[in-house]
């Protein structure tokens, strides 16, 4: 095999690798479309999901919901922390009695069901897969 053939094979292999790498999408923080909440700042979302705020801008008690399938990506994008750091943070707060962590939901379908049935729930989904009956209040880039 000559040099040109080796370079051609190497460049074809490299192009295949680039195509095969999944592109991570943004994460959409969502609420019920009828909640009356149009937008939240990243600071608002941090405070709600980290247990510092208990209320939504509407004055209602917030029900933050973690999606176990996207949780690691969400907290990395939101506060630049990995799951071990988030779990440690919540262990301290729970032990001290200061707050309770967000409700844990296993599947995106369950997240969808809970958010669409509860005006005070907020959660997150893949930015490219937001259902019509949910309203995006913040987009987080990874």
Describe the fold and architecture.
There is one protein chain. With 142 residues, the chain is α/β, with parallel strands linked by helices. The chain has one domain (23-140): 3-Layer(aba) Sandwich (D-Maltodextrin-Binding Protein, domain 2), CATH 3.40.190.10. The chain has helices spanning 3-20, 42-49, 71-79, 83-96, 108-117; strands at residues 27-32, 63-67, 103-105, 121-126, 134-140. It has a 5-stranded mixed beta sheet with strand order 3-2-4-1-5, sandwiched between helices. The longest helix has 18 residues, at 3-20. The radius of gyration is 20 Å and the shape is globular. Mean pLDDT is 85; it is low at 10-23.
List the helices and strands and how they pair.
Layout: H1 3-20, E1 27-32, H2 42-49, E2 63-67, H3 71-79, H4 83-96, E3 103-105, H5 108-117, E4 121-126, E5 134-140
Parallel strand pairs: 2-3, 2-4
Antiparallel strand pairs: 1-4, 1-5
Q: What is the CA–CA distance across the termini?
A: 42 Å
Report the CATH C-level class.
Answer: Alpha Beta
Overall form:
globular
CATH architectural group: 3-Layer(aba) Sandwich
Within CATH, the superfamily carries the name Periplasmic binding protein-like II
Q: Count the strands?
A: 5
Helical segment count: 5
How much of the sequence is in beta strands?
15-25%
Which strand order does the major sheet show? 3-2-4-1-5
SSE sequence, one letter per element: HEHEHHEHEE
Q: What low-confidence regions span 5 or more consecutive residues with pLDDT below 50?
A: 10-23
What is the total domain count?
1
Radius of gyration computed on alpha carbons: 20 Å
CATH topology: D-Maltodextrin-Binding Protein, domain 2
Q: What is the average per-residue confidence, as pLDDT, rounded to a whole number?
A: 85
Give the biggest beta sheet.
5 strands, mixed
Which bin fits the share of residues in helices?
40-55%
What structural category characterises the helix and strand content?
alpha/beta
